[in-house]
Amino acid sequence: MNWPIDNAEWLKNRKQAWLELKANSIDVLTWFRSKDLKQVRHYFLTGEEDQDNPLPDYSHGKRLAKYPVPLFIKIWFYPEPSLEYFRSLLSHAGIRDIRDCYHSIGLSNFPQYNTDYGMMGGREEVVFYALYGNTFEEYRSLPFALPETELGFANQFGGYQAVIFWLLQGYPVFSSVQYSINHWYQSLPLRDDLYQEKDDLIYLMYLIDNFDDPHGLPRESSRYFRVAEKYLDIFENKPLPAWVKDLWDGVKKKEVTVPEKYQHYERSKF
Question: Is a pLDDT exceeding 80 seen at residue 47?
Answer without folding.
Answer: yes
